[in-house]
Every structure is written in C-alpha cells, then in structure tokens.
From TrEMBL:
Source species, domain of life: Eukaryota
One of the protein's GO biological processes: protein folding
Matching PROSITE patterns: CSA_PPIASE_1, CSA_PPIASE_2, U_BOX
Organism of derivation: Strongyloides papillosus (Intestinal threadworm)
Protein name in UniProt: RING-type E3 ubiquitin transferase
Reaction equation(s) it catalyzes: S-ubiquitinyl-[E2 ubiquitin-conjugating enzyme]-L-cysteine + [acceptor protein]-L-lysine = [E2 ubiquitin-conjugating enzyme]-L-cysteine + N(6)-ubiquitinyl-[acceptor protein]-L-lysine; [protein]-peptidylproline (omega=180) = [protein]-peptidylproline (omega=0)
Pfam families: Pro_isomerase, Rtf2
Family that this chain belongs to: Belongs to the cyclophilin-type PPIase family. PPIL2 subfamily.
Length: 524
C-alpha cells in the first residue's frame, strides 16, 4: 500500500486545501502582488484614477467619470487607455443598483459585486448586471430584452465591464495616458524600487525600529561601497597580475567557511600600484604667491602617492587662494589648508594616507627648500597640508614624507622667511594665488598604460599592424637563383656607368695636358 493513501480522508482541511480549493485567502492579494500589478479598482475612473461620480463606459468596457471623459474627448478623439478612436456619442451612461450600505449589487439577484464578479451592462438602457443574470434571463430563454425596462438588445451589444479572467484592462501601467505621463510613471517605478526594501512590507514600525533599520542600511551601503571592485581592476592582465596568488586554494582546503577552489590565480594589483610602476620621471609645479613664485621639483618615483595627491590638488585649483598659516623662523613655513586654521584639508581620495618613508624614498630633510607632508604626528594622517624647511632638520626624518624640493624662487623663499610673525602666525598674509602644473608624470603613465592595454586587444593589434611600416611589402623580390639573388642587377649597371664616366673624365683631363717630347731641346 502506498504511503499517505488516506491523506484526503482526514476530517479537517489543510492550509493549502483551504487556500487553493475552497476560496481561502491567497498570496496574490499581498502587498508585493499589488506592486507588481497595479490594478485599478472597479469604482475608479480609468482616466483620473480616482473614484467616479457619474459612471460611464466606452464600448471596450473601460469605466470613466462622465465629466472627466467628456472634457478629454473635446480635445482628443481617442480612448485615453488604448489610443483607439472614441467619440462622445460612443459613451454609455451606467445605472448601478446599490444596497442600503451603498455597495453596488445585481438588481435581480441582489448579489453584491466583488473582484471575482463578471459584470456586464446593456448599452441600450445602461443597466448593470451580473453576467449570470443576463445569461439565465435572456440568452438561455431567448427573451432579448432588458430584465428591468424591457428595452430590446442583441447578444453582441452586451459590454463586459469586469472579467476576473482578463484583468489587463485594469492594469494601470498599461494605460496609454499613464505611459505618456512621466510623473505617474516615475511614481510607479519608485514604488517598485521601495518594494525591494524589507520595511516596505511593515504595516506599522516604531520610531526605534525605524532608526535601527536606517543605521543598518547605512552600514550595509558603506560596506558594499568599500568592498566593490572597480571594473577596470576585475580583469587580470600582464600589468596588474601580482607575483603571488589570491590564496583561495589554501583557504578553501583548510577552512569549511570558504568555497573549495582548485585553481590558483594571481592576486590583482590596484590600478594605482600598476600606474606608479610606470612613473620614471619627476614632476614640476610652479606656485605663484603674493610675494613671488616658487618652482618645485617633485620626486614622483620616490613618493608616488604623495606626489599624485599634491599634483592633482594643484591641477584642480585646491590650493588657490589659500594661505600659509604657519611660519616658524629658521625652521619651516606650512600651508595647504583651505580653512587656514591648520586643522582642515583633505586628500584626493577623501581619506588620510600613509607616509612614504624608506624604500625607494631615500630623501631626507637634509637641506634648505625641501618639501615635506604635514601630518598629526602619527603615520597614516597625511591629507593636503605641506611645509617647506628653511634649514636641514634631521629631527623630522622618519616622521614626515619628503616629496620635493624648491628649485626656483629662492628669493621668494627668503622673503617668506623674513616675514614678521605673531607666535607661529605670519603678521602679513602670504597667499597662494595659483598653481601651474608644468609636468605630470602620472598622466603620462596613465596614457602609457592605456595605450599598452589597447595594443593587447585585437583592435589594437590590427591598428598597430596597419600603421607599422615594417609589415608593408614583406615579400622581397628575387632577381636570380645564384648567389646574391635578392640584389638588383641594375644597381651594378649604374655603378659601372658611373665608374666608366669617371675614368673617361680623368683620361680627358690627362689628354689636355700639353708636354713636349724629350727629344726637343729648343727651349734650352
């Protein structure tokens, strides 16, 4: 005997049976369903989308408010929902029968209309019935007259106002005037976006719960933004592939928290790391102040991150109209803070970055005019402020990143140093008027990287082959089958002709020389 053979012999109904077989509450009426399918209620006008006052309909069965549709048809001769031709003469005024509570009912059976009722009207009288009433009293008996007024009609005249098996007529998004109305369309799209949020389905949420949900959403969005990898880094090529693996094979083999991976892949380097490898030259910037100009040489290869931050700020005009807020005689002058307080400033990445000391950067605070980054005394607090030293300061070595040197405008630096101060604040304002980037090695590196990556593509290879002259005329002509078969014999003919002409000229010159024979001694 099969298992659960008497499943339907039980004396109670399951949830599934009640829901799908006995008219129980279905999930199709949930809030999510309402968002996916914006159904217009039967009591609403299809044009204004609000409850109608005087109900009318068109031959296609769309319900409208009398005043709204008449005003619309005066300027437009089409159905606002379908775009088909429609005139005022085609409009049918509807007569609904209502009970004491104001609900629309069938006038014969007194059966209330609901979402599952098949509702129809007879256009000759405008009376609205349940379709079953018309079928039983007219279609089956052949008495083709209105049950209330005895007005004759034909089967084809009956207009279906609502059919639960065909609800496309009540889909608001399918209405032509809604598609053309950008405002309504945006409202529907925004509601669909909100439907993906969990709090959209809450009927009532306390203020504490709302605040908690907002905090969680902020944390999740920030984590999502920090963990997403740019598209440019996701693809591995010969430029951004590291000489070490991602470590996923070992992690998947030793921990059940990771998915098993059987193939080692190289780790992907950041775009900045790849770009910095191609930087080989120094950068140059000219700073114009109200006391003169300064020419700066930047050590881009030694401190690439610091130099890129400084050069980008100069290109963007970040330092324009900022002051040197700190001046210590025989020590340094400091600027780069847009607030002018020494507490502000931001890097181009929107967050502090670490020092670049040691390694490739062997520069120190060894002479006058060296440029260094200002920080809060802790590694990883560099932003936009910088300072220029007036004399060697070995005490700063290992604490601040040296990234350049003043190579022009020594007199300007002297003027700055001689400015009177009030404590560590200059009495007279020393302002950066503008900055001019003369050479930016980082842009050159980006263009080079972009060019080399393009040359690796099929399109780049084809373009290179087309433009490269070494690929043209690859087939060398063969002039003979002997030794020197690729040498053009005409070249030898030209050489022979040239040699014979030279010999003849020499002989002619020799013939023109007049000399007497040795036997003639008349001149003696």
């Amino acid at each position: 005997m099969g298992k659960k053979q008497h499943q339907k012999d039980k004396l109670y109904l399951t949830t599934q049976e009640w829901k799908y077989e006995f008219g129980g509450h279905k999930d199709s009426h949930s809030r999510k369903r309402k968002v996916e399918f914006k159904r217009l209620p039967f009591s609403h006008c299809s044009l204004s989308l609000v409850p109608y006052v005087i109900p009318v309909c068109c031959p296609e069965g769309y319900l409208f408010d009398h005043e709204t549709i008449i005003n619309y048809l005066k300027d437009n001769k089409t159905n606002p929902c379908t775009g088909k031709k429609l005139s005022i003469k085609d409009i049918v005024k509807l007569n609904f029968t209502k009970d004491k509570k104001g609900n629309q009912i069938d006038p014969v059976k007194y059966k209330p209309f609901n979402e599952n009722s098949v509702i129809a009207c007879i256009p000759q009288s405008g009376n609205v019935y349940d379709l079953e009433t018309i079928q039983e009293l007219s279609f089956k008996t052949g008495w083709m007259k209105d049950p209330q007024t005895d007005v004759p009609f034909q089967r084809k005249d009956v207009i279906i106002l609502q059919d639960p098996n065909n609800l496309d007529k009540f889909n608001i998004e399918a209405f032509l005037h809604v598609k053309k109305d950008k405002k309504k369309k945006l409202e529907i799209e925004e509601e669909k976006k909100l439907s993906h949020r969990a709090d959209y389905y809450f009927n009532s949420v306390s203020t504490e719960a709302q605040e908690t949900l907002k905090e969680l959403e902020k944390e999740f969005s920030s984590q999502k933004s920090t963990t997403t990898i740019p598209k440019s880094v996701q693809e591995i090529d010969k430029f951004n592939s590291a000489n070490y693996s991602q470590g996923k094979v070992a992690a998947g083999f030793t921990s059940t928290a990771f998915d098993p991976v059987t193939e080692n892949k190289p780790a992907i380097l950041d775009d900045d790391t790849v770009k910095y490898k191609l930087v080989t030259s120094n950068g140059y910037v000219k700073i114009l102040t109200n006391v003169g100009h300064l020419n700066l040489e930047l050590y881009c290869k030694a401190a690439p991150k610091t130099c890129e931050n400084f050069i980008t700020h100069c290109e963007n005009g970040y330092y324009d109209n900022t002051i040197f807020h700190r001046l210590v005689k025989y020590f340094l002058i400091q600027g780069g803070d847009p607030t002018g307080t020494g507490q502000g400033g931001q890097s181009i990445w929107g967050k502090p970055f670490k020092n670049e000391i040691g390694g490739d950067n062997g520069y120190t605070h060894s002479e006058r005019g060296m440029i260094s980054m200002a920080n809060k005394g802790v590694d990883g607090t560099n932003q936009s402020q910088f300072f220029i030293i007036f004399r060697p300061t070995p005490s700063l070595n290992g604490k601040n990143t040296v990234f350049g040197k003043v190579v022009g405008g020594i007199n300007t630096l002297k003027t700055m140093e001689e400015t009177e101060t009030d404590g560590e604040t200059p009495k007279s304002v020393i302002k950066i008027l503008s900055t001019d980037v003369i050479k930016n090695p980082f842009k050159e590196a980006e263009e080079q990287l972009k060019k080399e990556r393009f040359e690796m593509t099929d399109e780049g290879k084809a373009e290179k082959e087309k433009s490269n002259e070494t690929f043209k005329d690859m087939h060398t002509k063969v002039f003979s089958n002997d030794v020197g078969k690729y040498i053009n014999p005409k070249l030898f003919e030209n050489i022979k002709k040239k040699s014979t002409t030279e010999n003849s000229e020499v002989s002619r010159k020799k013939k023109n020389i007049t000399s007497k024979p040795y036997s003639d001694f008349s001149s003696w």
